[in-house]
Amino acid sequence: MTQPTLEQSTPAEPKPEPLPITAVTCLEDRAQVTRSGRIELSRGVQRVLVGPVTPLAVDRSLRAEVIADDGTATAIDARVVRVYTPKPATGPGPDASELRRLVHESGERATVLSRRERRLRTGLALVDQARADLRRDIAEQTGFGTTEPERWAAESDRLSAEAEQRYTDLHTLADEQATLRTRLRDAQAALSVAEQEPVELTATVEVVIEAERTGSAELRVVHLVPCALWRPAYRAALAPDRRSIEVECDAVVWQCTGEDWSGVTLSLSTARPTLAARPPSLVEDRLTLRERTQVEKKQVEVDLREEDIATVGRVAGGSAELPGVDDGGEVRVLAAPTPVQVPSDGRPHRVRLTTFTTKCEPEAACSPELSQYVSQVVRFANDAGHALLAGPVELVRGSGYAGRGQLDFAAPGEEVRLPFGSEDDFRVVREVTESRTTASLTGRTVVTRTVTVFLSHVAAPGAESPGTVVLRERVPVSEVSAVEVKVRRDLSEPAPDAVDDQGIVRYDVRLTAGERRRITLVYELHASGKVTGL
């Protein structure tokens, strides 16, 4: 008894279905790509191929979700399948070898010669047809008793000459084709030995779906890709009356992921997913107590150090040049109001986020210790509705482009200060003198410092004045009781308008065109006899 053989048919490999990119969340150094679209499902477990996708997709970040109308479909598994396929015949790239270029050029030359041969043979066929027409014309005219031997002879000679010329061109072309075929065959043989055929890495996403019934469903695939980043950028335009300012908040996006982002919903995030990849290393920090020495009991050593004044919008101890986006320590997400186009070319593309116009307060600020110029500074509130991240800002005022500046992080509603260049009608000169006295009995030391600032408005009489010039100087702030700092208002001329807890002394100076002012600030440092290092 024989057992019949059953032929089991192998199911056909499913074709990749294109799933367009619909949403992108761009992070500091990568992007989260979301693909979505509707697919047709059959009952049971099935494989769905989505592609092509970029081979840069991060495998461990891949997740798929099926949203069926009746909730009867589930994504069981998803993975990225990468294969090497031959590149399309589009010609050698810029880094191709001379041998590969020779094969490509010889192939193109062979195509040109083949087209030329077809043209010559077509022309030769036309000449043969013209000869047949001439012979038929001779027979017909002779039958009617009409003869034109001279014209017939001339036409026959012309057609013979044209046919002979085409035969000559065909023989020459055949020799050239034979030489080219030999050259191309040798070059291809050498290329097959020396190099391999270039291949291209392509990728698809394979999703295993279980469906209880036949129907359509929405498939959503999310994964991370490297080679994408964004940074904030701004443009601030000051009104001619200096009473309002327009701020444009943009995002500069770079991406070279291998796929263009066409008409996608773009979100910008300051999240740093790589920082949580490993816990911070712990180091031992041992604290010990010891008795002070007799010298330490008799002396108080002090030192002068520079310290930045921390504000709400600055990171304490942070550097001016941050490697990432300064978000104030909290993850911020900004969204583009309209779909955007970002091609995969590695070039910066500017995307408009928000624009707001608000009132501002202009101020002519001067810090003679740092700069001898009077700068136009504008103060305004952050009315963007979201935090302004730290980034470069293009400054535009009434006369046009004024330069580039840096906008620090500003929370919603926080005051923002932007400099709009210097006021060239002012001249500032600063001089510092110091005197020191020490009491012989107590050893108490008094250091008196006199800061003299000469401020001049050199504009022509009747010129427009920027108003009040805010001049700021600083005095040391003591952190120990053995050292005391006093601002001598009685010796200063004029007396300071304000002195804050951070040691910033403020003068509000009003100057008319051609006026000159002299400002003298006197402060004293009182140190007990135990203090050293002052």
How would you describe this structure in keywords?
534 residues, alpha+beta, 42% strand, 18% helix, 26 strands, ten-stranded mixed sheet
How would you sum up this structure, described in words?
- The chain has helices at about 100-145, 150-195, 295-300, and strands at about 20-25, 30-40, 45-55, 65-70, 75-85, 200-210, 215-225, 230-240, 245-255, 260-270, 300, 335, 340, 350-365, 375-380, 390-395, 400-405, 415-425, 425-440, 445-455, 470-475, 485, 500, 505-510, 515-525, 530.
- Helix 1 packs antiparallel against helix 2.
- It is built from three helices and 26 strands.
- Strand 23 (about 500) and strand 24 form a beta hairpin.
- About 20% of the residues lie in helices and about 40% in strands.
- The chain folds into four domains: about 20-85 and about 200-225; about 100-195; about 230-270 and about 295-360 and about 380-415, no CATH class; about 425-530, no CATH class.
- The protein is of the alpha+beta class and about 525 residues long.
- The longest helix has about 45 residues, at about 100-145.
- The strands form five sheets. Strands 8, 9, 14, 15, 16, 17, 18, 21, 23 and 24 form a ten-stranded mixed sheet that branches. Strands 1, 2, 4, 7, 10, 12 and 13 form a seven-stranded mixed sheet that branches.
Strand content: 35-45%
| Uncertain spans | 4-10, 312-322
Mean pLDDT: 86
Query: Rough shape?
Result: elongated
Structural class: alpha+beta
- Per DSSP E runs of 2 or more residues, the count of β-strands stands at 26
Order of helices and strands: EEEEEHHEEEEEHEEEEEEEEEEEEEEEE
What percent of residues adopt helix (DSSP H or I)? 10-25%
Number of domains: 4
Report the span from N to C terminus. 114 Å
Radius of gyration: 42 Å
Number of helices: 3
* Main sheet specs: 10 strands, mixed
